[in-house]
Amino acid sequence: MAIPDFIRDLRADIGTKLLWLPGVSAVVLDDAGRVLLGKRVDTGGWSVIGGIPEPGEQPAETAVREVYEETAVRVVPEGVVLVEAMPPTRYPNGDMCQFLDVTLRCRAVGGEARVNDDESLEVGWFAMDALPELDDYALVRIKKALDAGPTWFHGMAQAQAQAQA
After folding, report:
1. Cβ neighbour number for residue 121 with a 10 Å cutoff
2. 126 and 38 Cβ atoms separated by less than 8 Å
3. Measured on CA atoms in the order 7, 8, 12, 15, is the torsion positive or negative?
4. Helix (H) or strand (E) segment spanning residue 145
5. pLDDT tens digit sequence for 82-119
6. How far apart are CA 133 and CA 102, in angstroms?
7. In contact, 81 and 141? CB cutoff 8 Å
8. Residue pLDDT, tens place only, 117-130
9. What is the dihedral of CA 38, 39, 43, 47, to 10 degrees?
10. Nearest CA to 22 among 98, 87, 94?
11. Nearest-CA neighbor of 86 among 141, 150, 43, 46?
């Protein structure tokens, strides 16, 4: 994962302490209903495409930029799928981060999927019945992107049920 300059600057001051960061994930679908995935250099696993917004960058702009940078695919964001605070993560270098993930459903509108930077080992389109091994959170994001329901917020189903009781 490429570390943005502003995070390098922060790390110079705070070391490896917990850093709260925004993150944007893009569940990219094509006209055939396939999902675009990247095999990450840092973990070796398949995942939806995502990254960290630059200071002042809007989440939809981040999704468009990250998808193109990593896969050479052009996308149009269509909606917010979910918003969730993730558990803290410790990276191999000792850095601790906790991300507030905003996942967007995006439609592919151009480009040919290929490795387009140094963050991915492979990229490709996958039919829903032929997905590679994915972690649970990637599967949740894909499932929610395929649902026609409203944006999903962690814990809100319980709060809504209590409010209606």
Report:
1. 15
2. no
3. positive
4. helix 136-146
5. 999 999 999 888 999 999 999 999 999 999 999 999 98
6. 22
7. yes
8. 998 999 999 999 99
9. 40
10. 98
11. 141
Residues of the chain with pLDDT > 70: what percent? 94
Measured CA to CA, the distance from residue 23 to residue 141 in angstroms comes to 13
How many other C-beta atoms can be found within 10 angstroms of the C-beta atom of residue 150? 10
Strands 49-51 and 19-29: antiparallel
Pull the structure tokens for residue 37: 């995935």
Length of the chain as a residue count: 165
d(CA 64, CA 27): 11
Q: Rounded to 5 degrees, what angle do the CA atoms 57, 58, 61 make?
A: 90
Q: Strands 152-153 and 120-126, how do they pair?
A: unpaired
Q: Which two structure tokens, joined as six digits, stand for 36?
A: 């675009």
C-alpha 7/C-alpha 29 separation (Å) is 30
Do strands 152-153 and 74-85 pair parallel, antiparallel, or not at all (unpaired)? parallel
Closest C-alpha to 147, from 27, 25, 22: 27
Q: Token digits for 148?
A: 């026609």
Residue 157: band (very low, low, confident or very high) from pLDDT cuts 50, 70, 90:
low
CB atoms within 10 A of CB 19: 16
